[in-house]
Amino acid sequence: MRTPKRYQPLRLPGFFDELVTPASQGDAVTRRVLDFLLKLPPEELALRRDAAEVAIRTMGITFTVYSDGAAIDRMWPFDIVPRIILLQEWQRIERGLKQRVKALNQFIDDLYGEQQIIKDGVFPAWVLEKSANFREQCVGMKPAHGVWAHICGSDLVRGKDGTMYVLEDNLRVPSGVSYMLENRSVMKRTFPELFEHLDIHPVDEYTAQLYETLAALSPATDPVIVVLTPGIYNSAYFEHSYLAQQMGVELVEGADLFVDSDDTVHMKTVLGPRRVDVIYRRIDDLFMDPEAFRPDSSLGVPGLMRAWRAGKVALANAPGAGVADDKVVYAFVPEIIRYYTGEEPIIPNVPTWQCADPEQCAYVLDHLEEVVVKPANESGGYGLLIGPHSSATQRKATAASIRKDPRNWIAQPCLNLSTTPTLTGQDHKDCHLAPRHVDLRPFILSARDQFVTTGGLTRVALREGSLVVNSSQGGGSKDTWIVDAESSHPQEVK
Questions:
Q1: Whether 62 contacts 76, CB under 8 Å
Q2: pLDDT per position as a tens digit, 460-479
């Protein structure tokens, strides 16, 4: 067997590599893990990758890509090199995520209530007036514990100086947590020796915490909880079925539920109707109830909004939570945190230009080659313009879209996302570690209490030089290890 190539991080100004330039406190852990991986011959690395792929195929871990009108199931792309974050840093990030989501829930509750933040001049009325996700049907509602976004996935990125930033908040129907859980299961099989000597914090409490969060939304002692899915053709169907199975609750489609004349939701069973107390819905607002929203929707449940407004069923996430899942609103989140908590944001935002502001819009249009331009309400990497990697034709089309509807666009600096070692090379003799850009999506649960996943879903841009980490755009994922440097024994990893 040949000796593997040495790891070569990007030796360019403004790039931060997480295993080569970490905080000195974690040197012993991160460098020992890197040394362990580099000592493995290319053939051994390839064999371990093959074993991980067999496990993924056997476990049926897939995602769906929509291409040319067809839905194609693909095996989940997974990189076997872990991403390591020290517990000492993570504890601060966890506090920042709890602070942020608490403020956002207060913000949503205020917008559907007194709108005091607008009256006080902290948040501009024009942003709300042109919001694509504000739901008039939700005005006046007061969900349990004042929480609207019970499950949030906030995307974090590390900048050139190592600082972690919030890139965006996903408050509507965030996905990806099942892959985080399955990634850990695969990694335990792939590198058991590393788990033996490192204090890697577990992630498998999530489904129990999710169940506890959902149960807290109902006054019932033993509430009936279901996961509502659009069906097998949805890109996240694997996750819907996985979470239902892990929580021990029913996975249902719209046709499996009905609302009676008393505004109570029931599930159809072979033993007759059974009342449902809590619905973890994985259907977008506009498709969840044809009575209240789109009348042509066959995915939802007629009368579901009536039942929710009557207090007969709890919905997670609550309809209308997406009003804060808007990239224009994102720019105001630091002020939202200060307004509702009286505290400074623990995790900073990425600087953002709002195209609705004429002066800022002019700057963006003049600097399209340098910035990242995003539509306000798209997800999954769709609609992005990454200026430095764009063509003149793409920039021209984006400029026209901005001029047509400035409110729908924001821009941010083109961040040099941090890199971590990633296994590259398809040939067994050429497998080696190379730097690839990553982001991180932790998940925050909120009801009576708050929970934050220990780490989250690290997404990685598998193509060299790419900054797009979404699986639908050619990205993959890694297991994220939150490691306590003080209680680990990396010297024993051989």
A1: yes
A2: 998 888 877 876 666 889 99
